[in-house]
Specification:
The chain is of the alpha+beta class and 288 residues long. The protein is 36% helix and 14% strand. Strand 10 and strand 11 form a beta hairpin. Helix 6 crosses helix 7.
Length: 288
């Protein structure tokens, strides 16, 4: 399995070296690099359209005013204060069901939600515990820090997503990394004994959700300090990896309209805080 990872990482490095394009996105924001995803399969025209240039910085004069211009630990600390102090809406685990029906609504069918790993559009009412139902996936696995489903990180919908029940079980509490065997029920996803690789279309989403959690939960609120690291097999430790791969995924799969809308719905209607890495994906490298 290690050989698979080395091969894929080598391909990724070549793809980034050959295809990186610098794009300035706002006058006050440094240009950042994007690359065609180095993937198990080629990107389609539709996926390329999803990842067109986006406008960032709309909240810089208000929401992010105390963070703009900072880097490193100072930026991380500022963002923690912002997103924790503005999270005035906190859900119970049962309330998460209805919230996800709105945050992850299929833009082409308001009766459905889009499932994270499969990409399948499924009825909002087909949620539960049967194998082909959808349930509430903790992208930062709740055992990594043992925070359970109590109000807090266990109910923070910035990292909770609808997922096929059996595919959610396949992911389990594995760390994120490249490589493995393709998941039969969810083509484009790969897994092995200690890691899970999501489909190309949501790699960046996964990375930005993980990094949001690392900034939001720093040891206060009665919960452990959640931090990414560059290893797998973290078990019950309050860590998730691999950080280097998550950073790569965030660059390869920048925020799209679905992810931006989701961030806005959470801000407007539910928690009233934002995922800063959706608004400013370049802050990933500015901190880590």
């Amino acid at each position: 399995m290690d050989n698979i990872r080395v091969t894929r990482r080598a391909r990724t490095a070549l793809a980034i070296a050959a295809g990186t394009v610098l794009t300035a996105v706002a006058a006050q924001i440094p240009a950042h690099a994007t690359a065609t995803p180095a993937a198990h399969h080629g990107a389609t025209a539709a996926s390329s359209a999803r990842h067109s240039s986006i406008s960032v910085g709309g909240y810089d004069d208000t929401y992010y005013k105390d963070a703009v211009g900072k880097t490193g630990q100072a930026l991380k600390d500022s963002l923690h204060r912002i997103i924790s102090s503005t999270q005035t809406g906190k859900l119970t685990y049962s309330q998460v069901w209805d919230a996800l029906k709105e945050t992850d609504e299929d833009p082409a069918n308001s009766a459905n939600v889009i499932l994270l790993y499969t990409g399948r559009s499924q009825s909002k009412t087909a949620n539960g515990s049967n194998p082909d139902d959808w349930n509430r996936e903790h992208v930062w696995a709740k055992s990594h820090g043992d925070f359970g489903t109590d109000t807090g990180p266990g109910t923070d919908i910035h990292h909770l997503r609808p997922a096929d029940v059996s595919v959610n079980s396949t992911r389990g509490n594995k760390d994120f990394d490249n490589g493995g065997t393709e998941v039969g029920e969810a083509p484009g996803n790969y897994t092995d004994d200690d890691s899970f690789e999501p489909r190309d279309e949501v790699k960046g989403d996964v990375a930005r959700m993980i990094l949001y959690m690392a900034v939001r939960y720093d040891g206060g609120d009665g919960f452990q300090d959640l931090e990414p690291n560059d290893q797998v097999g973290n078990g019950s430790q309050p860590h998730i990896g691999r950080l280097s791969v998550l950073k790569q995924w965030s660059k390869e799969d920048p925020p799209n309209a679905f992810e931006q809308r989701r961030n806005q719905v959470i801000f407007d209607k539910y928690q009233h805080n934002r995922n800063p890495f959706i608004d400013h994906p370049e802050w990933v490298d500015a901190i880590w």
